[in-house]
Amino acid sequence: MRNKIFAGIISGILACMIFLYGILSFTGHLVSANEKILSSGTYSVDGILRSATSNQASMGNAAIAKPMQIIADGDKIYLRMECKALTTSLGTAQFTGYLGAFHYFPGWKGGSSGYELPKNEAPVAASVKSYYKNVYDKYNHPQTGTDAKVKGKLYPQYMTIPVKERESEIWVQVYVPVMEEISKGSGLQYARLQLDCNVIKLRISIVISSTDIHYVCW
Predict the structure, then answer these.
(1) Rounded CA gap, 49 and 195, in Å?
(2) What is the overall mean pLDDT for the chain?
(3) Which of 9, 22, 91, 171 is buried deepest, with most CB atoms within 10 A?
(4) Domain that holds residue 3
């Protein structure tokens, strides 16, 4: 009887080890250049909005929450971004504002240098999924707003743009009213949205001892 109980315990331990090994093998799998990994689901990915002409962060980078999300739905893949308030300084004065508009250039790759501004490319507006309700400031207030581009309009909270699998850089154009106030003409700027496509996190619900496993390589 004791031998049977002991054998049962050993079998259970081995089964758990095999199960865990399978999960770890899946979550730590490095994919080849031609392998497709994004099955339908929601992933998180780090990224940064850089200046169009340098490797410095763009003025609008602080207005996008990190990490962002990749949503794979069959053959369609979208990048989901959450907008948030940003604060910038001019001397001792501080200014706070929101992202007013976000456009992207699906066919532009930066020209021969990688830093050339879009030419003969029409900007496409991001698809806004939700807005900040009842959030008004000196720029977008319906009656007293000082910025004609956003006066009476709500600020975007969540928005999406289509992306390709392994796409690491997307040329965009952002408008930030607070930057326009600080320096006229600087509110609208080109930028490069760079995504870290080496490792993303798959949001799954495999629970082992109340611990979620999230990591998967893109």
Answers:
(1) 9
(2) 82
(3) 171
(4) 1-30
